[in-house]
């Protein structure tokens, strides 16, 4: 059907679109945001971040103010390709952690393309909600 609408066929059209998209992303220097999840446990939080293809030498985990930052780069090896679907580039993600998270004692492990960061929690008494009266104007 597409061959009838598009004069140069499906494969040529797809290749042209893929090349245009690849060129567009290379020129902008897009930063990739890894997928992640933060789970709560009794004495710690567990942040899991997907970073397939990256090793510990390509990752940096640090605090900047109140944010936990994960940064790295997945570099492309130069070689002849017949198919190119893997995404390469710089990854960056900053997480604002809950108030009871400690900055000291964090542990980071990389296992099967998933970075796991164990973040200890401070034991704090739960604060009651503070009611603010609403006045009529």
Automatic annotation (TrEMBL):
Belongs to the small heat shock protein (HSP20) family. Signal peptide: none annotated. It comes from Thermus aquaticus (strain ATCC BAA-2747 / Y51MC23). This is Small heat shock protein. The keyword Cell membrane does not apply. CDD domains: ACD_sHsps-like. The keyword DNA damage does not apply. Keywords: Stress response. Residues 26-137 form the SHSP domain.
């Amino acid at each position: 059907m597409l061959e009838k609408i598009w004069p140069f066929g499906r494969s040529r059209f797809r290749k042209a679109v893929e090349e245009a998209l690849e060129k567009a992303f290379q020129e902008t220097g897009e930063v990739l945001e890894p997928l992640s999840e933060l789970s709560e446990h009794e004495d710690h939080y567990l942040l899991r971040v997907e970073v397939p293809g990256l090793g510990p030498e390509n990752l940096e985990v640090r605090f900047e103010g109140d944010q936990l930052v994960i940064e790295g780069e997945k570099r492309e090896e130069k070689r002849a390709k017949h198919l190119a679907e893997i995404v390469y580039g710089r990854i960056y993600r900053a997480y604002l952690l809950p108030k009871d998270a400690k900055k000291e004692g964090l542990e980071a492990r990389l296992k099967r393309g998933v970075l796991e960061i164990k973040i200890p929690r401070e034991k704090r008494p739960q604060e009651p909600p503070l009611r603010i009266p609403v006045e009529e104007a």
